[in-house]
Write a structure and sequence with these properties.
282 residues; mainly beta; 11-stranded mixed sheet; 4-stranded antiparallel sheet; 18 strands; 12% helix; 44% strand
Length: 282
């Protein structure tokens, strides 16, 4: 299969998404760390890892990233508050928060991070109610505390850590597995309803620009991680998707100028369906 990515003519700045990391600190002996990772960028993954497991379950995608904080009332220095049936307030630091909402048509406030499908909101709310919550930033493969003065920007990765009692772990795992199964079904149905078909075997990705030559290489990313750099035209990569897990993956191409600055980018979701994958791609 051949996939074409056409760079838009408008400029767009972006940052490379960080790699997976280990949780900082240690939980009490009678609790387990549950982690929710949100890539704060368009089509960024919303993933959950249960009970200190290294595998991440994809449960939603970001539709609109948050790029500002709003004022948070109360004495909570960090955590998650449910402000309505379909709105979560994530307190990043005392007095500053963002809102997580299901994606809707129309303008989105700058402090809102919207996700889809809307049903994922129920999962996030249920998980954050299971125990004390901390919020961290994932930077360069490490979890770091949210520093004073921090405001979110496109490309940040937020990690919400919940200290869950061991007795609650089976329930949490069940909720996560069901949400992952539901999202995979929705992703496959969305693919089938579009002109795109599920991908199997070899996939060739060709990046083209409708603007003037950008004078630099193109970086290809798979699920947020750089996997190839092509220095001259044609900007093409060929992958064997049998090395990937079955399910939805995000392919991205970033055009750089001669100074290494991102001047244009394009993203595309593909659904891999080989029947089996060895999971080497993440």
């Amino acid at each position: 299969m051949v996939l074409f990515l056409l760079f838009p003519t408008s400029l767009a700045a972006a940052r490379a998404l960080p790699l997976p990391s280990l949780a900082l600190g240690s939980a009490a002996t009678d609790t387990i760390q549950l982690r929710i990772r949100i890539s704060n960028t368009s089509l960024g993954a919303v993933q959950v890892s249960a009970a200190n497991e290294s595998a991440w379950q994809l449960v939603a995608r970001v539709v609109q990233p948050a790029i500002e904080v709003a004022t948070s009332s109360g004495d909570l220095s960090q955590g998650v508050k449910q402000t309505s049936a379909d709105c979560m307030q994530v307190v990043l630091r005392k007095g500053a928060a963002i809102r997580v909402l299901p994606a809707k048509a129309g303008p989105t406030p700058r402090d809102v991070l919207s996700i889809g499908p809307p049903s994922a909101m129920a999962l996030l709310d249920a998980l954050c109610r299971l125990g004390p919550v901390e919020v961290a930033l994932e930077v360069g493969g490490q979890l770091l505390p949210v520093h004073d003065g921090f405001a979110p920007s496109d490309g940040d990765v937020l990690v919400i850590r919940v200290a869950v009692a061991q007795t609650e772990v089976p329930q949490a795992k069940s909720l996560i597995a069901e949400a992952g199964r539901r999202y995979a079904e929705l992703a496959l149905e969305r693919t089938r309803q579009s002109a795109q078909k599920p991908v199997s075997g070899y996939l060739t990705v060709i990046a083209r620009s409708s603007a003037e030559p950008h004078g630099g290489p193109v970086v290809f990313l798979l699920d947020g991680s750089p996997v190839a750099i092509v220095n001259r035209t044609p900007y093409t990569v060929r992958w064997d998707t049998r090395d990937w897990t079955d399910g939805e993956h995000l392919i991205e191409a970033r055009a750089l100028n001669s100074f290494g600055t991102v001047v244009s980018m394009m993203k595309k979701l593909v659904y891999v369906q080989n029947g089996a994958g060895d999971g080497r791609a993440r």
